[in-house]
Design goal:
about 210 residues, 5-stranded parallel sheet, binds adenosine monophosphate, globular, 3-stranded antiparallel sheet
Length: about 210
Amino acid sequence: MRLILLGPVGSGKGTQAGLISARFGLPHISTGEIFRTNIKNNTELGKQAKQYIDNGELVPEELTNNLVANRLAETDCKNGFILDGYPRNIAQAKFLETITDIDLALMIDLSEEKIIARLSSRRMCSKCSQPTSLDWMVDGKCEKCGGEVYTRDDDKPEVIKNRLQKQAVSQELIQFFKDKGVFEKIDATDEVEDTYALVKEVLDKVNND
Ligand code: AMP
């Protein structure tokens, strides 16, 4: 299954992608996570992307599109993948169209009020790279693997505001996938497991079609 997860920042896309990846054995490709790893390792890509990410801006198309094209060409993507955080606009969607078909673009939706509450309590695990939350952590560590956690620089309140404004999923992008007949949306207001049950219902339907 070739899956795109759409949704506002902080809607829980990353968490749902991790669950889908474990259940369906598909690689979870998060462009944001790839950029963060590159920044941590001080690579050329990391150096070029850092200033945009720190300001809550989108990284330029060319860097992002190349990164995705190279990643999707790897052998683990042969039977499908989960794209998390890409495409973020029509230009990226049109580029993606030139390299692969898509079975489903699933929007994980959430109100702005809930997003701000979630992002301010979000932490990232430095060991398993999965998102966690102040509410889930055990003894100040990642509840999944016991790793040390950190707060993403772009989860600071002033950057969150910029990301919400500049990185909202546009109606145009939604319409692009609706026109292709691959768009579905679920509401992520409830707990992670409840949201995952909704996600799984949609995925099972697409898998059986
Ligand atoms: P995320 O982890 O998806 O919230 O992404 C973190 C940051 O990485 C974003 O705020 C952008 O600066 C950058 N980024 C991630 N995905 C993309 C993309 N598809 N296009 C451009 N920039 C991106």
